[in-house]
Amino acid sequence: MPSTTAPGSAPMGRRERKKAATRQAIADAALRLFLQRGYDEVGIREIADAADVSTTTLFKHFPVKEALVFDEDADQEARLLAAVRERPEGRSIPAALREHALTTRLASAGGDPVFTAFTDLVAATPALRDYAQNMWLRHTAALARAIAEECGLPAGDPACTALAHFALEAPRAAYAHDDPREAITRAFDLLEHGWDALTRNKP
């Protein structure tokens, strides 16, 4: 969901504050229009007009239409790696990543109507689902290294890379599912226990 200032970030100068305010105004206008009428029904020029900026200015902040829906979360990767490195004693890496996925992907369960509308918009729009997932998968290499470090394995270990990739892909199972929590949990059960264990214990 669009946001310009991460918690704990250093104070910005006047020029940076002005740029951040412009970016936020564009993002707010875009999200408002998308929620009112649907992502595919709103054009770039209309968003620029609503934010009182030129389309050139809009594209300086958001190079593609899909980017209007998502913030640039500099802390996303840090939180992901912390889920692995700071997991409670006795908790497996797949279990830690499952809890992280449930927390981040099901945040709307807290009842925030705006966030719920935002997640519904993403879930209902294939272009936004794909863009969000591609953004998420950028963290595969860093996550694979963290997993390898925790397991005492070489940084390029293929099993660590595979686990990282599949763990980041697993939340996709929640889209268009009647019970997103159950979908994510089942996907991570496969990573935790393997296919044989999963098929032996069918629900």
Quick summary:
The chain is mainly alpha-helical. The protein contains 10 helices and no strands.
Helix-strand blueprint:
Blueprint lengths: L13 H24 L6 H8 L3 H7 L14 H10 L7 H13 L7 H12 L1 H12 L2 H12 L6 H12 L10 H21 L3
Helix pairs in contact: 1-2, 4-8, 5-10, 6-7, 8-9
Structure explained in plain terms:
This protein has two domains: 14-69, Arc Repressor Mutant, subunit A (Orthogonal Bundle); 76-200, Tetracycline Repressor, domain 2, CATH 1.10.357. The two termini are 34 Å apart. It has helices spanning 14-37, 44-51, 55-61, 76-85, 93-105, 113-124, 126-137, 140-151, 158-169, 180-200. It is globular, with a radius of gyration of 19 Å. The protein is mainly α.
Quick one: how many beta strands? 0
* Overall geometry: globular
CATH architecture descriptor text of the largest domain? Orthogonal Bundle
User: Structural class, from helix and strand content?
Assistant: mainly alpha
Q: Could you say what the CATH topology of the largest domain is called?
A: Tetracycline Repressor, domain 2
CATH class of the largest domain: Mainly Alpha
Oligomer: single chain
Helix content: 55-70%
Helix count, DSSP H or I runs of 4 or more residues? 10
Order of helices and strands: HHHHHHHHHH
Low-confidence sequence ranges: 2-9
Any idea what the radius of gyration is? Answer: 19 Å
Strand content: under 5%
Q: What is the total domain count?
A: 2
Instruction: Give the averaged pLDDT, no decimals.
Output: 84
